[in-house]
Amino acid sequence: DYSITSSVVSGPLPIESYQATMSVEAIDASSTLFPWRGVFEPKGMDDDDCVRFFEDVYARGIQMMINTIGS
Length: 71
What we know:
The chain is an alpha+beta fold. 32% of the residues lie in helices and 44% in strands. It contains one helix and four strands; from the N terminus they run ββββα. Strands 1, 2, 3 and 4 form a four-stranded antiparallel β-sheet that branches. A hairpin with a 6-residue loop joins strand 1 (2-8) and strand 2. The longest helix is centred in the last third of the chain and has 23 residues, at 47-69. The protein is elongated and about 45 Å long. The mean pLDDT is 86.
């Protein structure tokens, strides 16, 4: 299993104190689980809107990885 953790201190995103961990976990010889977890404080939007924003970001990021390495 592998993981990477990153954080955003400042920038154009509608959040503060962002920290995310992406992991790759083998399920079996042909399947992999890719959990992507984030913790953040919304800035300029409510909690639900911020969660939807990051769900979209995560979905796009995962789709780009699938397109790059195959399914």
